[in-house]
């Protein structure tokens, strides 16, 4: 349906039942906003005319809104959103003719209090409806924390009727939140006076806090906005200023240009006295003569943002080319708001708001992400919150892609490895996410982001880019479902012949997105007939591998293959797709003395296992000078896959440890990145065994040459990757007892011990505290204990918490831990709260010394502890859990089993804890029995070959 309003033509599509019922892939089942009950859809908006009058000094606002709406289904009720704190002073609903649009005025002609009805006698399709005497009843209700208002009339409104819903309202701004319309202040450095600013944060559904509206992403309509501001301040809106008038000596009314169709969460405004800098041709290699771009900040902070305009220019130019679509608005205003407390920037359309530190930071990732939202989210908008998930994932991928392409990757050089490793760990658990909805949402979004990356590789960059352009061209100024993205990519791939028929992107994406799991692919080569069997199953790292229905899980997997005799890592076209097949056979594999690599560069988010012979050929090749022919991402992947498959019980640890031998010549941070996580995981798993000491020696031998080469101090102009590599190697060397590290830490700690008033503050960097408490003297540890006991209330509690965590979790000496337990549990020292004790128990699970000492303490003092905690079930459950559940060897199983038999009837409400602990320890014991002998044998051989270096 076409609407012609104020001389501008907009297409406002009617929401049909078919479009409302359409569903895309169920991307996430627990999105926090899906519980927001949908509006009935009987009446839908065509446009908003809004006048908003904030009072910055007083913290309140008033406004009036006229909503032009169409009746989609015969009804006597209009339902829209309104927050309970928003007070309605006057309301009317008028049925109007299209010819009346230009003549309608906003203000009613009644001064009476309460809800007023002013209806017109109108005609619609030759049917005269007299509704002058109708009355409206208004009711507010809260539905799943999302507020609605229902307007009930005594006359039925027929399908197609056009309404004007006029409402006067008022509300309050708050400066302790950034939701809706808020205010905040800062001190002017010259005048020392407090200055207020007013701003909005409408995403995801906070527009209802500011004005009554249809606050759902599906309703994209134009806004005509007038903002009334103090004369000494300036108002910035999504669109440029059209005109200003002076209704009083103090207030100015700014009328802004009419917006294109947009959602309520895209609405944005800032009223402030901030200064700005603009992009001009002399400041930037890129110039946008048709777009006014400005960066706003406090006058004394503006110099810190001079590089922002260049970063914005580069990103906008790249994104315009990527989308094949110019920046969609005539203005772009970017604010560095003082004292801005939102957890993320406000990515409204044409108006971005950042914390000052975010906007002045070195990198450009955050800035580019908010610019991506200008197209994907604002220009093309998800129809409902379930589709917002795929919107977020695609924004994240395009942001990463753009950041790397334009070279602004200062803090981004390890993407996507860090994200990949974390979701591998999460989705390989027996129970991914637990009950944590936030973790589920983040890991699901990360997985979807990696699916887009996989498609970019397998379809080719050109097809992916043109597919995105096809999608944007079709859905700009409209809403979309997730299926629309997959369809555009499929159509483009068909056109470019980069996807075999009858495969569709929807099928491929759906197999990944709808599962809370990831696959592992096993490659078994037959060296006699040059074939390879490719087999897929669920990747399970955490034991036991007893996940129900795992045989039903199948994915569409691209088989991208690299051969040693033809190492072309630029060709990422799949040799074949596993079309939800359990296994396939590849023909024409290379000769028996030549390795293959499946899924190079982590093209798809799945680990790959090989037969032992192929692993050994890879390990040997990586130790040669030719290893750099394999890109660093793939070197990291091979190492990461090997260790994690060994950890899961799918690969011999001897093979996995062989894959680390090339590190003696490796200096790329990305290749080392997975090593530190794996050292931590394996170290914690074996630290209760005799093998652990040998493992620590191996780690020292591995890291010492690297650390010595990097040096103890940063070098001028070095990369962030090199700095991070130095820091990580130092931390892990300290954990293994590397003498130079311990001596450096003790020297720093001594400065604190020599202070006249050590309780006034801690002059020691955090990096030194744990090594001192772990390897230092009892005197040093006792000094730390006294600092906790005497901690003054004037200092930050977080400093005390950190000190308590390290004092508890770091020591190797059981006597230190036992002393702390005696003081806090048996002596009930008043300086330690129940929360402190709970934290102590939790921290002791981090090392074998910790939980073994806690177990012995519990067994020795059972009766006293039971009496002490009988009225504190949280602490009782905590000590039972921490003292019994972390053992991983037969010795630990025997200890816990004996305690259970001795005290079987005395565990009380912690009985289920000990039973679960015994089950888990049995599983861990099986792992230890299978793997520790293999690890020890390999370590013995390695240490023999490096005997001359062990004194380091």
Quick rundown:
The protein is α+β, with helices and mostly antiparallel strands.
Write a structural description.
This protein is an alpha+beta fold and 952 residues long. The chain folds into 3 domains: 2-273, Immunoglobulin-like (Sandwich), CATH 2.60.40; 275-408, Neutral Protease Domain 2 (Neutral Protease, domain 2), CATH 1.10.390; 417-697, no CATH class. 39% of the residues lie in helices and 21% in strands. The chain is built from 27 helices and 33 strands. It has a 7-stranded mixed beta sheet, with no helix packed on it. Helix 5 crosses helix 7 (437-459), helix 14 (669-686) packs parallel to helix 16 and helix 15 (691-710) crosses helix 27 (911-945). It is a lipid-anchor; GPI-anchor. It holds the Pfam family Peptidase_M1_N.
